[in-house]
Amino acid sequence: DTAVSQTPKYLVTQMGNDKSIKCEQNLGHDTMYWYKQDSKKFLKIMFSYNNKELIINETVPNRFSPKSPDKAHLNLHINSLELGDSAVYFCASSQDRQWRSGYTFGSGTRLTVV
Amino acid sequence: DAKTTQPNSMESNEEEPVHLPCNHSTISGTDYIHWYRQLPSQGPEYVIHGLTSNVNNRMASLAIAEDRKSSTLILHRATLRDAAVYYCILKNAYSGAGSYQLTFGKGTKLSVIP
Predict the structure, then answer these.
(1) pLDDT band at residue B97, thresholds of 50, 70 and 90?
(2) Count of other CB atoms within 10 angstroms of residue B79
(3) Which residue of A has its CA nearest to B39?
(4) Which residues, listed in sequence order, are joined to residue B110 by a DSSP beta bridge?
(5) Which one of B18, B53, B59, B91 has the fewest CB atoms closer than 10 angstroms to its CB?
(6) What's the confidence (pLDDT) of residue A96?
(7) How far apart are CA A21 and CA A76, in angstroms?
(8) Mean pLDDT score, A8-23
(9) In chain B, what is the greatest distance between 2 CA atoms, to the nearest angstrom?
């Protein structure tokens, strides 16, 4: 039973399209995140939601819009995809007092924009 | 969160112990030391964390210097499956709502030689 699951695992799409990536966690965690890992393998936080409320929005183009319908889900919608959006996107979750235990990450969604 | 410094890469022979160092000279008294690893084509995975005392779990041991300015992740017998990038990350116990996320550096790429 996967703790943090992302769909799809792979996504190939053309420039200008709109796409969504879904994330679900069954750990009962309060906080969920989206990270982006570019071709240089650097992991960077994009968004963080705590109890369905946005608490972090790093310098991310407004073409990226996260949506959290409930505590267990955090989806990422991307409008007008660009070549530079090609990356691996990871969803993660944690309890808000995260220092007590670890964060759990999904296995990633590899987005390729052509 | 305070900064950490790790070597870019390390090599180990299979079935030998591996000591992965991390320097964190500006650590505060309430910073927890977390270690994560990222296996190829997977999301980051929690390894271990600690505050002051050495910690052991089924994956690894964490040795924390007495002054807490450095720590060492110990893999007791490296296997080929341990080849990954290892990240040392500090998380403050009193991080506010805007600081829930893990901030990843470049980590140490561990290669295991058969």
Answers:
(1) low
(2) 12
(3) A107
(4) B10, B84
(5) B53
(6) 62
(7) 5
(8) 97
(9) 45
